[in-house]
Design a protein that fits this description.
The complex is a heterodimer of chains A (about 210) and B (about 210). Chain A has seven helices and six strands; from the N terminus they run E-E-H-H-E-E-H-H-H-H-E-E-H. By secondary structure, chain A is of the alpha+beta class. Chain A folds into two domains: about 45 residues, no CATH class; about 160 residues, Butyryl-CoA Dehydrogenase, subunit A, domain 3. In chain A, the strands form two sheets. In chain A, strands 4-3-6-5 form a four-stranded antiparallel beta sheet. In chain A, strands 1-2 form a two-stranded antiparallel sheet. The two termini of chain A are about 15 Å apart. In chain B, strand 4 and strand 5 form a beta hairpin. In chain B, helix 1 packs across helix 3 and helix 2 runs antiparallel to helix 3. Classes of the chains: A alpha+beta (about 210), B alpha+beta (about 210). At the A-B interface, strand 2, helix 3, helix 4, helix 5 and helix 6 of A face strand 1, strand 2, strand 6, strand 7 and helix 2 of B. The structure holds zinc ion (2 copies). Chain B: InterPro entries: PqiA-like (IPR007498), PqiA-PqiB_transport (IPR051800). Chain B: This is Paraquat-inducible protein A.
Chain lengths: ~210, ~210
């Protein structure tokens, strides 16, 4: 039962920008900045768990208006159609564009909720001192961090439609208030993933047999 | 593993950025990778001619980015009336419609961050290629790390595709020259990042400053 050798256990800090290993003694005697890239050095991200919690709660609250309010309205020949995020997916599916409908469904509906739940699970598992499946949780974190940005597809799509479709009575697209809430969910969950420190998953590991 | 207990800072050992486990820096060949034995995070990479290649891709990317701003991305036609959009028009349209927050978000993620990433890479690597020290390499490398998650050109391309498919249903849409330039710019940016070997960057900087 030996503890793994980590930067923390040998009294050092790994720079989060350039990866240089700097000893605590050097930091105390010289400066709290990385001697190679001058980034501020932290052993762990500060207040990681409470900050991630706060961001996740904000994202969870905004998730409701993001899905309830319309994100865009199309007015063509006096007829107006209003879409929510999910409505946009259904419309694509109804017009036979299944591949695009599935991509938009994954990016706009599945990814945001998956991200919030995955980060919530990671934070709670650290707080409860969960000792099993550390490697799987590390993988879940890496995956969550990677997919988050892809939810911006809908925001870019709306920006293109409102810039392009402005032929007055013939056809005009306008954005709806749901778009702001939706973009806020995407950006806040990106910050939540950046704020969570994956090293916390491993910090209480004592032996190597519980992977 | 043997440590000198009194080290100040070291390039011989490295802690995993995702689990903090210490690894001694391995001698890996060009083109090889080293992963963390505990959590599987990518720790070490070596690339052949890393800095030259990355610079070449960044310059190519910047050229395509400029082209992508000149021509229309998509053209939309209905009953004889037509409308085209350029790359920055989406951000402007949000702004004008009163959604200034979204205008800023789209402007940063589709215009500012993608071009800044290329400019920072070029202003870092071009002077080094000419054996000069860049203006402020530390600041530039930190900036690069912070810009990276907010440059979303590849996602913007998918946004264009979805918009294209949606419009096809009720009007004539055609693809503009800028779209091709934009796709090539994204490919060049991805390659510039993939070929960049940060350890090679730091050791080259040390050489130049010595
Ligand atoms: Zn550093
Ligand atoms: Zn690791």
């Amino acid at each position: 039962m030996t503890a793994p050798v980590t930067a923390k256990s040998i009294g050092a800090v790994s720079c989060h920008v350039c990866g240089l290993l700097v000893s605590n003694r050097f930091i105390a005697e010289h400066s709290p900045e990385c001697p190679r890239c001058e980034a501020a050095l932290h052993s762990r991200k500060s207040n990681s768990l409470s900050r991630t919690w706060a961001l996740l709660i904000a994202a969870g609250i905004l998730y409701v208006p993001a899905n309830v309010y319309p994100v865009l309205t199309l007015i063509s020949f006096g007829k107006s159609t209003t879409n929510t995020i999910m409505g946009g997916v259904l419309e694509l599916a109804q017009s036979g564009q299944m591949v695009i409908a599935v991509i938009v469904f994954i990016a706009s509906v599945f990814v945001p909720i998956f991200k919030i739940l995955a980060l919530l699970f990671l934070v709670v598992s650290v707080q409860l001192g969960m000792k099993v499946r550390r490697r799987k949780r590390a993988l879940l974190y890496r995956f969550t961090e990677f997919i988050g940005r892809w939810s911006m597809i809908d925001i870019f799509m709306i920006s293109i439609l409102i810039a392009l479709v402005k032929l007055q009575a013939l056809a005009t697209v306008t954005a709806g208030p749901g778009a702001i809430a939706f973009a806020a969910v995407v950006i806040i969950t990106m910050f939540a993933a950046m704020t969570f420190d994956p090293r916390l998953i491993w910090d209480d590991e004592r032996d190597d047999n519980d992977g | 593993m043997a440590f000198d207990k009194d080290f100040n800072y070291t390039e011989d050992f490295r802690a995993c950025p995702e689990c903090d486990l210490i690894h001694s820096v391995p001698r890996i060949k060009e083109g090889e990778q080293g992963r963390c034995i505990r959590c599987g995070a990518l720790l070490f990479v070596r690339h052949k001619n890393s800095l030259d290649r990355s610079l070449a891709f960044a310059l190519t990317g910047l050229m395509f980015f400029i082209l992508a701003n000149v021509f229309p991305l998509l053209t939309f036609e209905m009953e004889g009336q037509a409308e085209s959009n350029r790359l920055i028009d989406g951000a402007i349209a949000f702004w004008k419609a009163g959604y200034w927050e979204l205008g800023i978000v789209v402007f940063i993620s589709s215009v500012v961050a993608p071009s800044a990433v290329l400019l920072v890479l070029i202003t870092l690597l071009l002077p080094m290629r000419l054996n000069r020290s860049p203006y402020s390499p530390q600041m530039q490398i930190r900036l690069l790390a912070h810009l990276k998650p907010w440059a979303m050109s590849e996602i913007f391309i998918l946004g264009i595709i979805v918009a294209f498919v949606k419009l096809q249903d009720f009007a004539d849409v055609s693809v503009g020259l800028s779209l091709f330039a934009f796709v090539l710019m994204v490919a060049a940016t991805v390659m510039a990042y993939m070929t960049l070997d940060e350890e090679a960057l730091w050791s080259r900087l040390k050489e130049i400053r010595a």
